[in-house]
Amino acid sequence: MPIRKSVKDIGKQSSIYGLGRIAVKLTALVLIPLYTNYISIYEIGILALFELTEVLLMALLPLGVFQGIWRHLTEADPKQQNKIIISGFVGLFITTTLFITLGYLSIDVFRGFLNINPKYLSLYKIVFINVGFQLGIQFTLQLWRYEQKSVQFIVATFFQFLGITTTTILLITQFNYGLNAAVFGKSIILLPLFIISIFYVLFHYWVKPSFHVFKRQLIFGLPLIIGALSTPILSISDRYFLNIFLPLEQVGIYNIVYKFGMIINMLLVTPLIMGIGPFMYRLKELTKEHNYFSDIMFYYSVLGSVFVIIISILTMPMIALFSTEEYLVAANIVPIITVAYLINGYKTFFAISIAIKNKTIIVGIIATIGIIANLILNYFLIQKFNLIGAAWATIISYFLITMMYYILAKPMTDIDWDMPRILKSMMSLTISIGIFYANNQYNILNEFVCGFSILGIYFILLIFTKALSQKDIESIRYIFRKILFKKRTQTSSS
User: Fold this and answer.
1) 492 lies in some domain
2) What is the mean pLDDT of the chain?
3) pTM for the whole thing?
4) Which of 223, 254, 262, 494 could bridge across to 360 with cysteines, CB 3.0–4.6 Å?
């Protein structure tokens, strides 16, 4: 079946590169118990601002060039591919170096906006340097993604995860470096990886770079910057507003609990984007023969809903296990953030169809509207509802952006996305989560029994609304068996 073959290909890529991203994202989760036990809530709030700045710069500084390289590599003669790669690399190296230097020298100017103790500003400068290291590493990782060099990708990302985690733990527990460890622990590992990445690219792809080629990549990619920025801004602007309206300790609490809501992003949404992105970019058009993307989106919706329910069940135990009691007060934001990231995943399908048509200006328009809406929502909702207001601002913004992508992308493709099925899935999820939270008896046993019963209710609702057919059930089984839990053959003939 074509759907099965396509799902298998995309699922394989999503799984491979998802593992790499999971390794990087796991750093944040693994270090939570360390931070909450060895660092004050105030300093965790400062660390949150460091992390948010890092995320924002990592979205901004590539200048959309990665997408431009992908796009032009698919159209280029094999003899011209090295020129495309090296031109993008040299161009990004120069622009990133200039920006990082400027940021390093001018950080003191923004200390009033940051609203933190001046003694921590020197650490902010190191954050800028770390971003430069990460971008150099990211360039190589992006190349390996495109070239499907999965072994190199996995080895590099897992080494990064293990190195940063181990170094940070040692610096905090053995040398009592506190907040400094979170910043310098990264530097120690990122620097050698950065150097290796630089030499790798220069050795394997070096030809004379072309400013004209880099300019073409910028023309394609620059309109995508706002789109790339929309996700980090949507996920970080709430913490900047929390820093304005609430004590910095509240920022720390929110930031720690928010990470649990992002588990779905780590395990499902990001692997989907990384797996399906290059796959769809290779297509010149999205026509009816590619209708299997609609099925893939529906299966993503079902699997994502399962993730949401399971994370909702485990929220209280996870927070209690990985942090201290001070953080339990914000547990109610986790399901909201989880659903927000699920909704954001739908956007991927529509956004790429726009990019294929070279209508990247639309991405910028949508992102701009979404960012403005998010800032307005955060301003009013945080003042009125505190932490829960920030979570609701996030989910409303993601929903608005996704719907705009769908409406504007629909005329550009012949694919029938079958949105009624998606809406039925989301309605079934909403009812299921509502039933779960209507049960106010919060003890571990009750939560697990009731919670896993909700999974059954969700699938019953899918079948009742006719969103889930027998064919879909078979395909979902196939995904679980052949992709998500793929195992090597256990027996061999001798």
Assistant:
1) no
2) 80
3) 0.77
4) 223
